[in-house]
Amino acid sequence: MKTITTISGLETELAAARAAGRSVGLVPTMGALHEGHLSLVKRAVEENDLVVVSIFVNPTQFNDKTDLANYPRTLEADCRLLEAAGAAIAFAPEAETMYPEPDTRRFSYPPVDAVMEGIRRPGHFNGVCQIVSKLFALVKPRTAYFGEKDYQQVAVVKAMVADQGFDIDIRTCPIVREASGLARSSRNTLLTDEEREQAARIWQTLDESRRFAATHSVEETRSYVTETLNEVAVLRVEYYEIVDGDTLQAVDSWDAATSIVGCVAVFCGSRPVRLIDNVKYK
Ligand code: AMP
Questions:
Q1: Ligand 1 pocket test target in 26, 29, 62, 131 with most atoms within 8 Å of CB
Q2: Would you call 279 helix, strand, or coil by DSSP?
Q3: What whole-number distance in Å separates Cα of residue 28 and Cα of residue 37?
Q4: Ligand 1 pocket check: which of 146, 150, 274 to mutate, most ligand atoms within 8 Å of Cβ?
């Protein structure tokens, strides 16, 4: 595997691959890699001749400077994991490489970016679209891989791809969880052992809520999840929304859409660490 930090280095490598007719898959990440990321990489390796994994903690998608400063960075360990998973290229640029000058482009994809994370993290999806569109233009992959853990992000990226006319197949991969059920996240390493144990209640409650939903309304289910999680001392729910899985707009009945998903953001512990997860009702 090659670790590349410059755009020209990446372009040279990719031009050679393309000249040889090799298909390219891209997995964009912010590093501090775990089994969730590696599931995307492994699938990409199965489905492409050459896989590029970008590792870049993208400053423009952080609306909270402390979150950006605290974000875990483990490049050496990441590269070892990527090599073992079969990636051909780890692209790990500096911020100045991706943003030689400020990116003033504005991306707006209502309704999918106008709810949930879009409201609580102003500018977040704009930053995601800035970096993902730069990576797409640079790597020109045939396929790109995203995790369902960031459910809303997938919808925003698909809207951006359609809007910008990228000829790229967006493939989504299921959420990988710890044995406790907690969704794997780079941010889990910021939790204490006690917090990590308690954070498992997030998925346990979402999972339980599927049984609850069979005999209760959407609003009752929403309240059930919010109240159950808020009863856990180290957790504080920022939002729990039950939405149409395609438009991401809140639904008020289980018949309102063919696909219905519950999306949660929870603050955990004293730091606090912000965790997200989601569950499919139908
Ligand atoms: P991040 O490094 O957090 O930006 O994540 C990079 C990609 O990995 C995104 O598409 C995420 O949705 C995906 N991802 C992160 N955690 C998981 C997980 N636990 N299961 C599946 N995919 C994940």
A1: 29
A2: strand
A3: 9
A4: 150
Question: For the segment 198-220, what is each residue's pLDDT rounded down to a tens digit?
Answer: 999 999 999 999 999 999 999 99
The dihedral sign for the CA sequence 234, 147, 57, 120: negative
Overall pTM > 0.90? yes
DSSP H or E stretch at residue 268: strand 260-268
CA 83 to chain centre: 22
User: H or E element: which one contains 4?
Assistant: strand 2-4
Q: Is 133 in contact with 164 (CB distance < 8 Å)? A: yes
Q: Is 30 helix (H, G, I), strand (E, B) or coil?
A: coil
Of 243, 241, 235, nearest to 275 (Cα)?
A: 235
SS3 at position 28: strand
Q: For the chain, where are the alpha helices, taking DSSP H only?
A: 7-19, 35-47, 65-70, 75-85, 95-98, 117-120, 124-139, 151-164, 193-213, 218-230
pLDDT digits (tens, 9 = 90+) for 79-90: 999 999 999 999
- Ligand 1 atom nearest the C-alpha of 175 is 20
Kindly state the tokens that stand for 108. 């707006």
The residue contributing the CA closest to ligand 1 atom 6 is 29
Q: How far is the CA of 215 from the centre of ligand 1 (A)?
A: 32
- Is 37 in the active site? yes
Question: In whole angstroms, how large is the CA radius of gyration of the chain?
Answer: 19
Is the CB of residue 62 below 6 angstroms from any atom belonging to ligand 1? no
* Residue 174, Cβ density class (10 Å: 0-12 exposed, 13-18 middle, ≥19 buried): exposed
The pLDDT of 80-103, averaged and rounded, is 98
User: Is the CB–ligand 1 distance for residue 26 below 6 Å?
Assistant: no
